[in-house]
Amino acid sequence: EAGVTQSPTHLIKTRGQQATLRCSPISGHTSVYWYQQALGLGLQFLLWYDEGEERNRGNFPPRFSGRQFPNYSSELNVNALELEDSALYLCASSLGGLRYGYTFGSGTRLTVV
Amino acid sequence: DQQVKQNSPSLSVQEGRISILNCDYTNSMFDYFLWYKKYPAEGPTFLISISSIKDKNEDGRFTVFLNKSAKHLSLHIVPSQPGDSAVYFCAASAEGNQFYFGTGTSLTVIP
Question: B40 CB near a chain A CB, below 8 Å?
C-alpha cells in the first residue's frame, strides 16, 4: 500500500511568488492535514480537509490556503511568499478518526530566497 | 500560543538505560495523546498513543504515562537502543479534532 506522497520534495521560490504543494493521501483516507515545521518551532497546524471541505485552520494568515479534490488529494497554496515561510511542509492523512493518529508524508522543503 | 510543550530540546542516554521524554500541555480539553518519532528527511511515524481515560499504555519497550492533574505525559523507552536516536514529538487532540504538536526532543542513544 502506497503511503502519503508529497510533491515536490524541494521547492525554491523568490519572495513575493506563489508556491503550490501537493499531497496524495493513503488510499481510503478521507482526511488530509497540513503542518508547517519551521526551524525550532515543532509542527504547527495549518489546515484540515475532510470530504472536500475545510474543517479547521490554524493561526496562519489567509495567504495560506488549500483545497481537497474529489479523489481526496490536496493542494496547499502559499501566496506572496515571505522569507519566514521557508520550512518543511508536512501532509498527513487519516481515515477520519484520529484514534490511530496520522500517517505523514516525507514533506516538501520550501525555501524562499 | 504553544498548547503542547516539550521543554527539553535534547536528551542523551547510554545504550541499555532508560530514556524518559517529557511533555506538558495547557488545554484541559485534550483527551487523546500520541507520540511520534522522526528521522531526518522522513515524515514523523506514529509510535504510541494514550486516551485520557487511562494513565498508562505499554507497547514493547515503549510506555506512555499520563498525569491529567499535572497536564503532563511522558514516554519511557527501556532499554534504549542506538536505533531509537531520533526526534520525538508528543501530540494532543481534543474531541476528535486535529492534533497539536510539541517542539520535539532530539534523543541520542550512545552505544
Answer: no
